[in-house]
Amino acid sequence: MSDVVSIAQTFAATQAASLQQALSTEMLRQQAQSQESLVTMLQQSVEQTQATLPLGQGVLVDRTA
Q1: What secondary structure does DSSP assign to the chain, as a single string?
Q2: 34 pLDDT exceeds 70?
Q3: What are phi and psi of 56, to 5 degrees?
Q4: Has this prediction a pTM greater than 0.70?
Q5: How far, in Å, CA of 49 to CA of 38, rounded?
Q6: What is the C-alpha to C-alpha distance for residues 10 and 21, in angstroms, rounded to an integer?
Q7: d(C-alpha 6, C-alpha 9), whole Å
Q8: pLDDT digit string (tens) for 39-64?
Q9: How far apart are alpha carbons 53 and 12 in whole angstroms?
Q10: Which residue in 27, 36, 53, 65 could disulfide with 58, CB within 3.0 to 4.6 Å?
């Protein structure tokens, strides 16, 4: 009887570990997607800012003034 209980406990622990690993993988995937979206948004913001500045403005800072 104890062998059956031991096998059942081992199976349950294995399933729990597998589920935990799957959840961790999914969380990392979602975090990567979120960071990718943030990078895309920042790139678009930079492109829009460069598009709206007049020619020569925002490229070089005159520190002699």
Answers
A1: -HHHHHHHHHHHHHHHHHHHHHHHHHHHHHHHHHHHHHHHHHHHHHHHHHHHSPTTTTT------
A2: yes
A3: 90, -10
A4: no
A5: 16
A6: 16
A7: 5
A8: 999 999 888 877 776 666 666 666 77
A9: 62
A10: 53
